[in-house]
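Exercise 7. Given the encoded structure of a 125-residue chain, write a plausible sequence.
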């Protein structure tokens, strides 16, 4: 069960990044694809499964953010990633979009580094 949950979680981590990158490229080239219903819906589906699998993993392993500082760091990083990503797609100018998109990608990389290293400092440690 653990390996199944972990593989689902990791696969949806990759899908989350891929959907963000593709939508980001479409944003920068002002593609009409961003207006498609499935393009708007897919990231929500992917990220919901990603979050649900992460919660399931934590529950299966009896982990809580209060007892695992690195897990709390992932949650804080996730909030930053989502906030920066939403802001990037809502920003009006290309400079703000680039800055916010890059910041969201740094937050994503931080989350992955925390998960891999199991330390709340991630790549800062």
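Solution.
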């Amino acid at each position: 069960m653990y390996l199944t949950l972990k593989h689902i979680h990791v696969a949806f981590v990759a899908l989350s990044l891929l959907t963000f990158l593709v939508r980001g490229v479409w944003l920068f080239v002002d593609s009409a694809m961003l207006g498609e219903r499935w393009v708007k819906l897919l990231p929500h589906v992917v990220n919901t499964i990603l979050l649900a699998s992460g919660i399931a993993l934590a529950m299966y392993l009896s982990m809580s953010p209060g007892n695992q500082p690195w897990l709390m760091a992932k949650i804080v990083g996730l909030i930053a990633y989502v906030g920066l990503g939403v802001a990037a797609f809502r920003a009006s100018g290309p400079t703000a979009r680039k800055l916010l998109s890059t910041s969201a990608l740094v937050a994503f990389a931080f989350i992955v580094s925390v998960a891999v290293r199991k330390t709340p400092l991630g790549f800062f440690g």
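Remark. The CA atoms of residues 55 and 67 lie 15 Å apart. Students should compare their own answers with the one above.
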